[in-house]
Amino acid sequence: MTTQGIVGQFLSLKEETDADLLAMQCGDFYEFFADDAETVGRELDLKVSQKSSHGSSYPMAGVPLNDLTPYLKALVERGYRVAVADQYETESGDLRREVKRVVTPGTLLETSRADAQFLAAVVTDGDGVGLAFSDITTGQFLVTEAATVDDAAAELYRFAPVEVLPGPELRSDDETLSRLREATDASFSLFATEAFAPGRARHAVREQFGASTVDSVGLDSDLATRAAGGVLAYVEETGAGVLRSMTRLQVYHPSDLLELDATTQRNLELTETMHGDRSGSLFDTIDHTVTSPGGRLLREWLTRPRRDRDELARRHDAVESLASAALARERVREVLDGAYDLERLASRSASGSAGASELLSVRDTLSVLPALADAIEGTELADSPLAEVVSRPDRDAAADLRTDLADALAEDPPKTVTQGGLFQTGYDDELDDLIERHESAKSWLDTLADREKRDHGLSHVTVDRNKTDGYYIQVGKSVADQVPDHYRQIKTLKNSKRFVTEELEEKEREILRLEEARGDLEYELFEDLRERVARHAELLQDVGRTIAEVDALASLATHAAGNGWTRPELTEAGALDIEAGRHPVVETTTDFVPNDLRMDDERGFLIVTGPNMSGKSTYMRQAALITLLAQVGSFVPARSATVGVVDGIYTRVGALDELAQGRSTFMVEMQELSNILHSATEDSLVILDEVGRGTATYDGISIAWAATEYLHNEVRAKTLFATHYHELTSLADHLDRVANVHVAADERDGDVTFLRTVVDGPTDRSYGIHVADLAGVPRPVVDRAGDVLDRLREEKAIEAKGSGTSEPVQAVFDVGSGQMKVAEAGDSGGDGDDSAGSGAPANGATGTGAAGNGSVDAAAAVEGSAEADRAGTGSDSEAEAALDPETEAVLDELQSTDVNDTSPLDLMAKVQAWQSKLDGGDGE
Length: 924
Ligand code: ADP
What we know:
The chain contains 33 helices and 29 strands. The protein is of the alpha/beta class. Helix 17 packs antiparallel against helix 18. Bound molecules: adenosine-5'-diphosphate.
């Protein structure tokens, strides 16, 4: 065929497939032409040559036939979908090329990633969202229906698929599509609309899993079925050949799981940090698994915490026994260390791509099961749920399959399955017979030279073989004329002559025949054996799952034992009581100061204040992570912990952290808040790390204030809210379940030491000046800022004292006018409740004395109504309270300056400006 012809064929095959690239077999190479050659050349650093023919020139890049897999893998892992056209000969001897499979990110069988490799499909009817997730490398197949697009996005984030098939409705719905895309790095592949049609999908799902299974697992969602149908059709069409290993359909309901929206999963850094690194994530910290299926399962557990206490208690029991039985645990982990990835081996067997060494891996891993049972028997683990996990797979069937493999395969089989030498003697009589005849024919040849020498008195005789001459007898020139008559000369060389005999030719034919027959039979037997393994896909998956589970449990126990974690007590929703809790990740790198946390029905909303960098956010995340770990079935970093099972964890973290990543806008912040206010329930845990910072101060306080009231009154979720709006701390006096806590800091001679201890009550200062100091603002500026602050505080105190009555009165920040105002204790409508955190006066924690007149804890003006305040206060106090405009302006600016958002230089300039304003206006 001419180049033109080959390229022409390439281009027309390319036309037929919707893959991004086409690799077409041309003899011993797979070739890419034209644009594809350029792409492949660039991506894989392959040499691109020019093939010219008939006046045209085409870029061309090729890879050797047997090297295609790694190149394919590299291309697919970069997000390309590659069609592979194989070449074959037709009955009539023509050469044909045809696309037999398309390798895509979600259908790559030869994956090297340790993580699951999910292919997902998403369909919607504008209302709910159907989702299917399948890992073709392990045969996992899960489907669900999510109520909203956000919920669907959360599931996508959980599964982290590599490829997503959007259903037909989504193709024109750019908004939904982009929300889904945000939750995943997967590549999106458009796939035939019909595959998602309800009737066709239902049929495909029933065909694949069996009608009775479909009924018994309760797959009654049309949307989920349609998504599943899409996945099945896609896997079939791409030709991965693994449908057989997809044996188990799992339907799950997001409501069985702890709700974790995509933002929360990201914020809690479950599997990667906010910067996208694996290292430093919760998973990375607690993962001590020794097998990749164990690692995958642990990751699955972490991203899918549960709500049912029975299953969790079972895991906790297992972890408890493993944690306390150090020797037995180490023995178990040693045994696990020898295990290969059985679920993946099952898929490779089913697709016909497993070689002999992989079947040996199956054999060896099957023997891990009895070894595990031995390691457990007679130890403290014997009565734990671990024993039950190990006894779950059909041990007899596993043993039989293992014996089959052990009896069949040679210990050190060759890499390719077509060159013979795969089987042990005694496995198959016909094969043994063939091998024996083959060997004896070969040994006849081996001894031929000696026999010829002896029988015919010839010296210098060798017997050899090459491609053109076949087997021959080579005789040195000096004795070449002494050869017997039946020798037929075939070649004369410089120093020798080559001969054949009829007998030799006969033997040669026999050897070739035997060789071929032996190869054919071995391959046939091998395929049978592999087929037998494939038929046991489900058994292998069971055993694989058991190994994974034991590994994941042992990993949790190892971490618990090594880090002093304890078993949490799980209760019905409500309380969260942590004694000496730590942050699971931070504690591994820091000398961590443990902290208590107590939340219950009376104390369900904690306002967390404290200086910047004091540990507020760590404290709150620690609460979320301890809750999450408890619902994973793990021990937790605390001296003791009682965890009321929650239905979801919702977080939103400070604009600052997110801004640093260039991700957050005020809009995003508000969307996250909105999602929390809509989705959280009384049984949820909500973590708010600053709300409202992304906008002007008054706006921000107002939103934070209103959100607090709404969460407290309507949603009633357990909430931890860290805020720098000190104003919010007065809410503790008015909302009965709100309490204040703060991270203590010690101030001495103007130096602040972070104690990292969380205590009840609000903090009363922002410590901004301390941060300015830390940031290197020159000493005179820092000192002067301290003076200014003191003066401002005094103004506040004077103002408070100047009420002219003996009733407690406080200066408050009026969010409406943006000015300091005077409010009387009685006029705020407060209910006088002084439970929980209000026991500590606002200034009680560090008491600088400036405002320390003991009158502040009446914290008034919740409604913040300027009119009411003004009307309710004596006229002389009004006069006293009125600051001169310069001071007010400075005060305003000081109030609204965000220290974190201002560079030291700017801060310095500001402070200088304030000083000069005050010097001019107020005078010293
Ligand atoms: P904030 O939210 O108050 O600004 P962070 O929670 O970000 O502060 O904590 C600031 C730093 O303090 C973190 O780097 C963290 O490692 C450290 N830290 C926080 N809590 C503790 C603790 N309990 N013990 C020791 N170090 C802590």
